Structure formats: C-alpha cells, structure tokens
C-alpha cells in the first residue's frame, strides 16, 4: 500500500500547492475578529466542503464562549464512517492565522501563496493550514486509492488558536464524553522541528505562571521635582522587588521554587545525546550573535535542558510607568510589574503561586515601605510531559522511519500549548505533538513559509502514522473516563482546561 | 501714591477679569503647534497691542530656534521710555498654556474664564496669563494716574514655556549684551505660594540630571517560552541595575553622589521655622492620604528640606519593555531605564554624570553579564540658589509687607526653572521668583483657577515691587558682563543655557 500511496501523493504535488494557495488566500486573522470573522468562517466552510467531498460528515459547532454581542468563529467537527473494531484518533488543527501585511517586511503578498526556491511563502502556509489540510489530503488519497482507513478519524479544527483558543477549553470540558468520548489518541501537528532536516516528536511542554506585581504609592502620578523627596515612590519598591526574582545568569532566586524540579538522571541525560542541534546556529536564531554572541549555556545538552526541562523566569515589563521615548519627570502612582515563569513537570502552578507570594511578602517586608503591594497570578498552566514510549509516539516514530529512513529526535519545547494538557486531562488519552514544518518556517513572523519537501513528506508521514496506529492492539480504553473535578479543584488556576480528570490508562 | 494706586486697581476689578477672559479665550497651546501656533501668535499680538496702548514699543522677534519647516512662535519684547538714571527690570512671563479639554474633567469650558466662589476658572488663568497681564495692568495704572514709573521696564514674554522654552535660551545667550544688556534685575512670576494665604518669595530651585540606562541582550524581542533559559535577558540586568540606585526610604545609593551636598547649618535650619506649611494638608496634595497616608518625612522641616535642599532620585519607567495591560510573554531585546536626580547647589551635573557612570560600571561588573550596557545623560541642569538678602528680594518683601501686612515666607522649590539660571548666568544680574498664585491653583491640571484676591493683590504687589526697586541706590552694574564660555564649557550639559557667564556682582 505504501508505494501506491507515496506515488499518488507525489503525482498530486501541484494540486496540493494550489489548494494550499486557496486556503492561504483567505485572511482568517483571529486577532482581528471585527473585520476578519467572516474570513475565518469562510475558511471553516472551505475545510467543511472538503470533508464533505471526502464522504465525511461535518458540523460547524457554535463556539461555546461566543455571545451575540461578541460572536466567535465556530469549531469544525469532522467524522468519517466509524468501524467500532478500530481505534479512533482525533486530529487537531487550526484554520486561523496571525495578522500579516506586506508592509511589515514581507517579500511577497502574505495572502498570496508564492513559490520561491522550493518554498511556499504565505501567512498560514505552515501555521497551520498546511498541516491541517494534510490530514484531509491523506484521507482523500485513501478514498481515491480505495484503501480502507486503518483507524477511525475525528477532525477538530478551531479558528481561535492564535488568540488563545477561546472556546476550545470549554468545548473539551463539555464534550469529553461526547465528541471526544471514544477518542483513543490525539495528534496535534502545530509545532516545528528543532532543525531544518531531521524530523522530531515532541513529548514535553513547559507550563506557565504569569504574575502581575502591583505597587501603589499615591493616587495619581506626581512631578518628580515637586514631590521627589516627599513620597515613597512605587517604582522604587517595584524595581527592587523585581530585582529579587532572578539573577543575570538566569537563576531563579525565589525560595522553594526549585523544590519539585527533579534532578537529571543519567538515563534522561542520554536522551539528549542523539538530538541534532547546533549551538552556533542557535545563536543566530536567539538573535544574540551580533550583540554578545553568548548564551546562558555553551553546550547543547545544558542549553536544551535549560529551555525544556528547567523552569525559567522572565521580566516582561512594567505597566503604569513612563514607557515612551525621551524624558518625562514623573513619579508613577501605581505600577504593575509583569513577570512569568515557565514551569516544568511536578511544578504545580498553585504551589508556585504560594512560594512567589511568600517571597514577595518577605522581600517587601525588608523594604520597610508603607506602599500598597498586591500580587496576582494572571495565568497558570501546568507543564505537559508525555512518554516517547507510548504506542502513539511509537506509531509516529515508525512512520517517520518509513518516510525519512531515520529515527526522529525526541524533543520538548519551552513554550506552552495548553490544549495538549486539556485533551489528556479531559479524556486520559495520550496526545502526540507531531511537527512537520521546519525550524525556520517563521510562523508568526514575516515571510512565513512551508517547504515543498515538508509539505510532501508531511502528508506521507501522517498517512503512515495512521497505518501504524491501526496496528496497535489491545482493548479500546474508552469506557472508564470522566471523574469530574471537585469544586475546589475547579478553582485552581488552569482548571478551566481540566474540567474532568480521567483515571484510565492504555 | 500707594492709596491712589490701590484705589485705582480696586475700581478696575471687573475690567481685569474681562481682559483675563479675553486672553484665556485664546487657546495658545504650545505642545500642539501644528494646530495652535496661530493662537499663540494671536495671544502675542493681543499683548503687543496692549503694550502699544500703554505707549510702549514692542517687537515680535522671530524665534531663533524656529525654521521654515518648523516655525516656532515669536518672542514678544516690550520697552517703555528709558530714563538712564533709573535702574532697569526685565519682567518675564509666558503666554502659552498647557492643553485642556472639558472632557478631561473640567467643570466648565477651559477656554471660557468662569467665575465661581471668587475663583476664576480657565486654562492659563494663573499659569501664566494672569501674572503676565498684571505687569501691563501695573503700567496702565501708572500711565492713567500720571505716576512716573520708578524703574525702566523691559518685557520678555515667550510662547513656548510649556514645551521647554524652545528658543528662549538661544535668545538669552545671543542678547545678553543687547536686549538684556542693561537689565539690573529680573523678575519671574511663574510659580506658586506654598500655601493658600501667605505670600512667599522663592530663592532656590533644584537642578536635574536625567539618565537613560540602556541594556541590550539580543537583536529583537524573543518568546519567553522558546528562549527563556537560553539567553541573558536585558530586563534582568536593567532591573537589577535600577534597583541599586535608591532605596525605599528615598536614600540615593550611588557612591559619591552626596559628597558635595553641604550639611545643614543651624542658621539655615532656623530659616524653615517661620514657613507656613501644613504637613497634614500636604499629604492630600501629595496624593498619599488614601493610600498609605505616609510621607518620607513626618515633620515640616525635614520634609521641606527633602524637597528643596537635598537631591532625590526617581525611577520613571522603562522604554522597550512590555508596558500594556494583560500578559505578554516577551523577552524584550533592548530596554531603556529612565531615572533622574534633582540636584542641589554645589552638585555639578558633570560630576554627577561621572559618579553615576562609575556606579553603573561597578554594579554591572557584579552582574557578570555579557549584555551591552550604555548610559546617557539626556538632560543636565544645575540647581539655582539665590539669596533672600539681595536687594531685589528685599524690594519684593517690602512690597508684600505693604499689601499683605506680613513678611513673606522664603521658599525653595523641588523642580527646575532653567531660565532663572540662564538669566543670571548670561548677565550676572539677580533673578527673583515672585509668585502671586496660590498653591491650589491647579496649574497644568483640570480646573486651573486664579483667585480674584490673588489677581487683585498680585497687581498691587507687582506695582509696589517696582517702587521698592526704584529706591535701590548705587551705580548701575551693567557694564562688566559677558565673559564668553570656552568651547569646552559649552560641551557641558546645560551649557546651552549659559552661553556666557558674567563675573559682575551687584
């Protein structure tokens, strides 16, 4: 079957590019809903029509978080004929894109897919219209070649990913035992290789604890000439407090924050050895080459661990202080310092909030200041760590071996993709991050592109992955999910994404 | 003469209010030159016509810093017939105003002078159209009563004061031996009493050293999930450096910064005793009442000294970091921390820049960071300190005694009015700050007002002041000024305002 499938895919290259061009031409920008909501809807309908042509059933489900005052794009659900003997995979993708305008510095119109040197330039080409359409092309190939799908496929496409996946978490919570009730595996193709040539599978993401530290000294901004020397300035306290959080070597200085971070085992360390990753080219990517040419860690292993498996703390900025250019002699009345930590496994955002709160209280006490201080955690999300040993990952690795004749790198990422955790926590089923775009695809940036090789190999990998999934034996584990969270657990930051927790294991 | 003058002034109250209303109706907003330049010109012509009616000569002098691409309002110079036996006073005022719009929270239209409870509400009423017109009303009274002016009067009104007095410093430098060549005294009525009822004379202003501390870690902003742990973050360094500058009790932590600050002598201390100043109502003015109700100093003397005769350091904000509301997971590439010090006598901005630069170098060294750091002094201005014993001050004190039957408070201010130093340094002649508005006049703010009592008593004080000046004997000291600064001295921050320095003393 493999040869026929690969040959069929290879023949259709031009058609795939044309169809990707049709999708890219729809400016489905989710951060500009006031003007682009109809475009997202159009893009949803484009994909829905495709599903229909493939003999699937589709549904444009009203966004559960939308209101008549603030309509949100629908969710697109797709089903194909179900064989109860087969396992079920839910593939996720998003059809919305980041904003783009040629004046931002694009070399060609961002909403016109433009081929140059084997690359397809266009907004959404790699993030995420290319990968999302690839699932449909895989199904199309099976239909036209008369090959049975080896697993049942459920499609879940959203239109708000680039704006926080609004509505999706509610959907996942509400549908964990309905639309998602018989899902055995999840597959998300919305991240990237860590290099340009070697495929990878992503088994970990860091969590997030985002804080706002507020200090207020007076009711309104004052003149530093007139009032300097008279009042306890809020900025003085805030800057000193923010200065106690992290040092210039990136070490977090908050007592207790590292308590739950597991030491690195030799086994884990060995995991990093085969990863293809070039520190020198990473300096270019990290944009430090022309400034200091220095990273926090000089060798591959330490650097990847610092980005993937250790927490970090970044100071993002201050709201309420003077942030313009030039000079303003202001004593800001109320300032809000923004900082966040990327969390790793076993670091609970709830506990992190506690240790940060205790740290701020201790440090503020030392300042002997009468100003008002307040700490808010704006977002909390647990990290996600899966096991590359899971059959879902093994299936993808086998597919990659078939297409690329190599084993994938096993990678983690420093960022957070909260739906991964949401899928797993709501259903107990394994989620796989299966990237098919390259590290230099420039998602979110100018000149976003998708290599034709990635497009073509991606379709092949996704097809092979379904066949590898089809080989997995054992009973369907779909019957034991759904132990609702308690009220108390629902109060926990991040609980919105884990309205239910499932105890079942494959 | 006094009785006739006072009676004449009292009779004309309605007329003064009407004329102030005409002036307030002209929205001469200097920060919005693109739309309001014609209004400033109109206001200048309004005052020029007034001078002409009084038999004076006037000149609208092109602003020396204006260009055809960027026209600036002219300077208004006014002369009255000169008697070479009399001394000459140059009175300064400004005819431009801060922006104002009723939607900002005004209770009545800001450009319609509106009387309520003995107060005249309107933009510019107290800052500075009321005081500026008062000089003309004084001359008018003399003319109509047939009383000789006891001194020669030169009028210098500008239209850019609320936007940094652009052009004025160049004028002062260029005209120190021409228009200003025969001036014996300067009088500036553009500040405020420190209370609501007791007049004061201001003999000191703090200087300024405004810094921008730049740290750059990478070429462009990065994602904290992806890059957190990999790069030396600029914000970490900047926040830590800013945290070494001042503590929560307002103490400046920069080595050497206090070296030139003279200790307080018992004589000086005694100076503060008679000052009418209520710490409790100041808490309201300092806007801390509802927050902490705490000031850096609890008693009048310490508080006034902290605002007037000691340096202070304020952290104003950061440019280049996230300053919006909500959460953004950014690692800013290049951040600029803004802070400034108010300087006091004997603190030279040049030396202050050196000690700050040395401090930053020392502290940055401790951080062991490869990031790029840079310190710029954006503005440097020396403080100004005069002596209340000078005959110019004695004249004003005697005038106040005549009108108010009280001696004035002698005050300093925490802010900087650089033209004061500019006048003195260019000519060697004494400058007096003679405020006639009250502390609650809300200059620059909503509901700016001018009390009718301040308007009326102000005209009387200015008139009596001229007569007291007329009594001062001794030779005219106008012949020995004008030792030009060296090229090197001109490079010093603040030198723009002291193009020439004069050694002559009264």
TrEMBL record, chains A, B:
<dbReference type="GO" id="GO:0016805">
    <property type="term" value="F:dipeptidase activity"/>
</dbReference>
<protein>
    <submittedName>
        <fullName>Cytosolic nonspecific dipeptidase</fullName>
        <ecNumber>3.4.13.18</ecNumber>
    </submittedName>
</protein>
<keyword id="KW-0479">Metal-binding</keyword>
<keyword id="KW-0378">Hydrolase</keyword>
<keyword id="KW-0224">Dipeptidase</keyword>
<dbReference type="GO" id="GO:0046872">
    <property type="term" value="F:metal ion binding"/>
</dbReference>
<dbReference type="InterPro" id="IPR002933">
    <property type="entry name" value="Peptidase_M20"/>
</dbReference>
<dbReference type="Pfam" id="PF01546">
    <property type="entry name" value="Peptidase_M20"/>
</dbReference>
<dbReference type="InterPro" id="IPR051458">
    <property type="entry name" value="Cyt/Met_Dipeptidase"/>
</dbReference>
<keyword id="KW-0645">Protease</keyword>
<dbReference type="Pfam" id="PF07687">
    <property type="entry name" value="M20_dimer"/>
</dbReference>
<dbReference type="GO" id="GO:0006508">
    <property type="term" value="P:proteolysis"/>
</dbReference>
<feature type="domain" description="Peptidase M20 dimerisation">
    <location>
        <begin position="203"/>
        <end position="365"/>
    </location>
</feature>
<dbReference type="InterPro" id="IPR011650">
    <property type="entry name" value="Peptidase_M20_dimer"/>
</dbReference>
């Amino acid at each position: 079957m493999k040869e026929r499938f690969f040959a069929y895919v290879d023949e259709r290259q031009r058609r795939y590019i044309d169809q990707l061009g049709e999708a890219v031409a729809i400016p489905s920008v989710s951060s500009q809903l006031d003007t682009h909501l109809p475009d997202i809807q159009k893009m949803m309908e484009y994909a829905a029509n495709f599903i229909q042509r493939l003999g699937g059933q589709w549904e444009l489900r009203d966004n559960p978080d939308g209101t008549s005052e603030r309509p949100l794009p629908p969710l697109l659900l797709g089903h194909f004929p179900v064989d109860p003997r087969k396992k079920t995979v839910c593939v996720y993708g998003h059809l919305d894109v980041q904003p783009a305008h040629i004046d931002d510095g694009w070399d060609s119109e961002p909403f016109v897919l433009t081929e140059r040197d084997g690359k397809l330039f266009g907004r959404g080409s790699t993030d995420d219209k290319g990968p999302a359409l690839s699932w449909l092309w895989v199904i199309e190939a099976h239909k036209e070649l008369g090959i049975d799908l080896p697993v049942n496929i459920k499609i879940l496409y959203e239109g708000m990913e680039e704006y926080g996946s609004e509505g999706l978490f509610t959907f996942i919570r509400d549908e964990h035992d309905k639309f998602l009730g018989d899902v055995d595996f999840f597959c998300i193709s919305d991240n990237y290789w860590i290099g340009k040539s070697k495929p990878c599978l992503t088994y970990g993401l860091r969590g997030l604890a985002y804080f706002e530290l507020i200090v207020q000294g007076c009711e309104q901004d004052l003149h530093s000439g007139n009032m300097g020397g008279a009042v306890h300035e809020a900025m003085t306290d805030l800057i000193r407090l923010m200065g106690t959080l992290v040092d210039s070597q990136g070490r977090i200085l908050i007592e207790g924050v590292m308590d739950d971070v597991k030491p690195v085992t030799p086994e884990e360390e060995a995991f990093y050895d085969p990863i293809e990753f070039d520190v020198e080219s990473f300096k270019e990517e990290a944009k430090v080459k022309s400034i200091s040419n220095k990273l926090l860690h000089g060798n591959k292993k330490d650097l990847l661990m610092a980005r993937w498996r250790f927490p970090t703390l970044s100071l993002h900025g201050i709201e309420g202080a003077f942030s313009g250019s030039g000079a303003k002699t202001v004593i800001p009345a109320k300032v809000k310092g923004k900082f966040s930590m990327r969390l790793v496994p076993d670091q609970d955002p709830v506990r992190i909030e506690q240790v940060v709160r205790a740290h701020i209280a201790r440090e503020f006490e030392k300042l002997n200041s009468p100003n008002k201080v307040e700490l808010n955690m704006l977002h909390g999300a647990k990290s996600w760590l899966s096991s590359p040993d899971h059959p879902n990952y093994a299936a993808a690795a086998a597919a990659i071996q078939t297409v690329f004749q190599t084993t994938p790198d096993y990678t983690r990422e420093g960022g957070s993709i909260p739906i991964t955790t949401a899928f797993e926590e709501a259903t107990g089923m394994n989620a796989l991050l299966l990237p098919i775009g390259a590290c230099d695809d420039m998602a979110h940036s100018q000149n976003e592109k998708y290599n034709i090789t990635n497009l073509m190999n991606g379709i092949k990998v996704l097809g092979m992955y379904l066949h590898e999934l089809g080989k997995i034996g054992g009973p369907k584990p779909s019957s034991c999910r759904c132990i609702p969270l308690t009220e108390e657990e629902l109060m926990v930051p991040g609980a919105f994404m884990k309205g239910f927790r499932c105890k079942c294991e494959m």
